[in-house]
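Sequence in, structure out. Go.
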Amino acid sequence: WFALHTQSLTMVKMGVLSAITVAAAVKSPADREQQWADFKAEFARNYAGADEETRFQAFMQNMDLVDDMQARNPLAEFGFTEMSDLTEEELIPYTQGYDATQSPCPGLSHSCCELPVSLLATDLAHAPDSIDWRQNGAVTEVKDQGSCGSCWAFAAAGAVEGAWGAAGHTLKDVAVQEFVSCNEDDLGCSGGRVDTTLRWLARERSGNAVTEASYPYDSASGSAPPCNDKSCWAISAAATDDWCTNNCRNVVPNCPPALCSCEGVNPHIKIAATVTKKGCQDLPADEDQLAAQLAQTGPFAIAINAGPWTGYKGGIMTDCPQGSVSHGVVAVGYGTDTVDGNATKYWLVKNSWGKSFEI
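Output:
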């Protein structure tokens, strides 16, 4: 499912997928040259030497995808975006950061979530016709992952924020960087998964997610700095949080109880949310059930194929080419729009490609 409102920034409305394929109209060289000129003017691009041709060829390839997606999706709008001059390789961190193929948990084939699906207690009959958690205190501002393949960490943070806010607590931004740098079950800017992240949060942080202000995001350049782990802290002026964390977490611990503590929550950092210590729960592959669950307990993480999204500008996306599940986002709402007299259901999704990219 795919689609969105243009004024919703990186929130995506996803409509029911269809299997209809429509041939795209072929643009003339003059049309492409004009698009290229318009793109450079809008995004203030000024290339040097051979880079102009490299960027133009990447732009041409991306515009071919735009034309195909526009033909498939008459209720949506596609065109050039600030990603349109990126090569296929440069787009990988944005569209392929979710590793759905790894099996990180011994004995489990597809998920690290440890709570059984049977624990769900959603009443389908009482699900509202629509919900938008942006209006109900469970969705923070859209973030920008940059060229780091950290969508999984942003999706995990959004799920934690959503569950916390939907439960009636004060909404705060969860630190994505802690997941990227400290979660040893995933691969930093080279990709990861939401289930492994939430399992790590439950087991290694007792369900406590720190605030973005405590641990700002620093991986937009595509690199992940070493973990600035504050899981242990000083209780004496003779030590520091860094010394305690490093020494108490060593293979051979040096953790004098008069100097350090690792029990509970570091009082020197701020907590954005405290979620279950039991980990996470897979949701059933049923759209009505998912909608009811979203309305009942708040936003949750999903994994999708985001390759077709790079040229999306607005409207309701109703048809996408099949592709691998390779990008993590957060479902934050659903509803129905009436277009040309026809009612079309959609999902509202929060992405992590920045506020200027309306998808």
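Check: The radius of gyration is 22 Å. The CA atoms of residues 230 and 245 lie 6 Å apart.
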